Amino acid sequence: MTTASAPRHLSRFDHLLDDAQRALETVLGAPVAERPNPGAGEPDIVMDEPDRRHAAGLMRINHVGEVCAQALYCGQAAVARDEATRAHLLEAAQEETDHLAWCAERLRELDSRPSLLNPLWYGGSFAIGALAGLRGDGWNLGFVVETERQVEAHIDEHLASLPGDDHRSRAILGVMKADEARHADNAEAAGARILPFPVPRLMAAASKLMKTVAYRL
């Protein structure tokens, strides 16, 4: 008679290897979405060159945002003190993988590419996430809430700025916005703390700089 073996406890080194693999897949790999692309059923219209470049610039920003989200969540999960908080962060990161794959696919359709600075965006965001997480799980979740609310706001800006007939990009961003709102609501329900001034303002300034650079690079 055989008995089931106990689940293997992952060491800190195991988690480090997992984080490294996630980083490589996010920055250099081709993430695969678990959910269908929301834009797949929309017509892929031919845009004039200025509109195509503008749509590509906006979707590059959104792709960078998802790279940063992956890094932030993984950095926060790496130092989370409570296993439930860690699981919450990694679950949200998986949905961000869907977003990453959808944005990458849309960039290819627009004959464009991801940001050349994605390794830099990932490394910096991972470090910020880890620093936020070291303050404790309440602050960790508070950082999730503030991040997601700011992402919701910039998606609204992009929906208003995209070419009117770019329905594929709009469909992708609509689902992304709903997911981000749910991540923030879940973090609040799990005990997120309100971040002190001036942290939200500094986060907004960093996001603005990222969007300016990523639009072209």
From TrEMBL:
InterPro entries linked to this entry: COQ7_proteobact, Ferritin-like, Ferritin-like_SF, Ubq_synth_Coq7
Nucleus in keyword set: no
Species in which this protein is naturally found: Lysobacter zhanggongensis
Biochemical pathway: Cofactor biosynthesis; ubiquinone biosynthesis
Predominant localisation class: membrane
PANTHER family linked to this entry: 5-DEMETHOXYUBIQUINONE HYDROXYLASE, MITOCHONDRIAL, COENZYME Q10 BIOSYNTHESIS PROTEIN 7
Cofactor (UniProt): Fe cation
HAMAP family assigned: COQ7
EC number: 1.14.99.60
Function: Catalyzes the hydroxylation of 2-nonaprenyl-3-methyl-6-methoxy-1,4-benzoquinol during ubiquinone biosynthesis.
Keywords: Cell membrane, Iron, Membrane, Metal-binding, Monooxygenase, Oxidoreductase, Ubiquinone biosynthesis
Subcellular location(s) per record: Cell membrane
Cofactor binding, note field: Binds 2 iron ions per subunit.
Family indicated by similarity: Belongs to the COQ7 family.
Membrane topology field: Peripheral membrane protein
Record field: catalytic activity: a 5-methoxy-2-methyl-3-(all-trans-polyprenyl)benzene-1,4-diol + AH2 + O2 = a 3-demethylubiquinol + A + H2O
UniProt binding sites for Fe cation 1: 66, 96, 99, 180
One annotated GO molecular function: monooxygenase activity
Glycosyltransferase as UniProt keyword: no
Enzyme class per UniProt: oxidoreductase
Gene it is expressed from: coq7
Protein name: 3-demethoxyubiquinol 3-hydroxylase
Domain of life: Bacteria
